[in-house]
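Lab notes, practical 5.
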Amino acid sequence: MKKNIFLLITFLYSYSCANPTIVNVIGPNDNKMSCSELSDEIAKANKYADEAKEAKRMDKPHNIGAILFFIPGYGVSMKNIDQAIQAAAQRAEHLNKIKEKKNC
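Output from the prediction step:
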């Protein structure tokens, strides 16, 4: 019985942490991309930023679980989400600069 409770708590603890995608700001082939590929990559970066912003909402299960079961986990999740949003914005900015250089 104790083992089952421990496994349940461990599962809920793991589920309570948000893990949005943190993109690399600079990719190895960014300068080789065509204008349409750059636009697609910018759209992906914006999608990751939107997903991270969505994960930050308080009505999400991982946020509720973090507050209920492990309050410091909530702080770590919020920091991780902020990093994901910032990285996605920097990626989009980097790609837009490349588009400007290529006169897209």
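Observations recorded by the TA: The chain has four helices and no strands. The CA atoms of residues 25 and 90 lie 6 Å apart.
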